[in-house]
Amino acid sequence: MPQSVRTTxxxxxxxxxxxxxxxxxxxxxxxxxxxxxxxxxxxLDLGLTLIDTAEMYAxxxxxxxxxxxxxxxxxxxxxxxxxxxxxxTERGTVAACERSLKRLKTDRIDLYLLHWRGSPPLAGxxxxxxxxxxxxxxxxxxxxxxxxSDTEELWALPGGRDCASNQVLYNLRRRGIEHDVLxxxxxxxxxxxxxxxxxxxxxxxHRALAxxxxxHDATPAQVALAWAMRQDGVIAIPKASSPDHVRANRxxxxxxxxxxxxxxxxxxFPPPKGPTPLEIL
Length: 281
Ligand SMILES: NC(=O)c1ccc[n+]([C@@H]2O[C@H](COP(=O)([O-])OP(=O)(O)OC[C@H]3O[C@@H](n4cnc5c(N)ncnc54)[C@H](OP(=O)(O)O)[C@@H]3O)[C@@H](O)[C@H]2O)c1
Prior knowledge:
Strand content: 5-15%
Distance between the termini: 36 Å
Structural class: alpha/beta
Helix content: 25-40%
Mean pLDDT: 97
Strand order of the largest sheet: 3-4-5-6-7-8-9
Largest sheet: 7 strands, parallel
Bound molecules: NADP nicotinamide-adenine-dinucleotide phosphate
Low-confidence stretches: none
Number of helices: 10
Order of helices and strands: EEHEHEHEHEHEHEHHEHH
Radius of gyration: 18 Å
């Protein structure tokens, strides 16, 4: 019997699962559609009820896949979507959100993120987020790809401290946030969402990772995920387009890494020695 999926809390105290499902590159071809919907639904059945998408993915096509996957079970799901920076003016954000709601076939997005910093002033985006929240179209808002200087700017703006999450690149090869962004957000009770937690598959043939995986009868992908979820306040959102990968990712949740494993990992993928510019994919 698998353990139920652990949760972490948003600043509002609402629990969210520490393992969710990504959707980048879903919805790009009619051929993949059936498997993608089946994978997301298999994830929901296993308790991976947080689904991350964005208006950018397949130009809205990924949001349509999500709509199909959550049909008839919307209330079980915590949907995260994102506004592109080029749309993130005060009026543009509201319009983008309404387009996303239509594609998602829902009346609310649970967490709406600014995908990355662009030229529209942040203050206007925040006003739109506040209006969308007041109107019930989004339940929480947050940011993505925000480094410490973006975060300081955000915190100084009216309403900026209502931010519910920062979604950033975090995996064994991209540990820079451990120096500043991660401790800062944990200290402020704002969860980090770790995107590309298996580095889009590029770290899976690493020898050290394979060695740790072998001792647990697990795969390198599972070790990378268990590692990303090892500390409180981090939500990992791997993307898997087959039910088999989804089941493997769900099993990674129940894998506990030992101090010895973590030491071997630190040796192969050293933690940052000082400030490191935030990396973006
Ligand atoms: N905010 C941002 O700027 C940003 C940027 C990047 C990503 N994201 C979000 O984060 C999500 C995850 O990141 P990502 O898609 O870039 O990369 P990722 O989750 O690190 O890697 C996805 C790749 O790993 C494979 N995979 C998944 N589970 C596996 C397993 N158990 N064993 C072996 N391979 C496995 C997938 O294959 P299959 O598809 O064949 O299963 C896919 O090729 C995205 O989908 C998106 O929702 C956000």
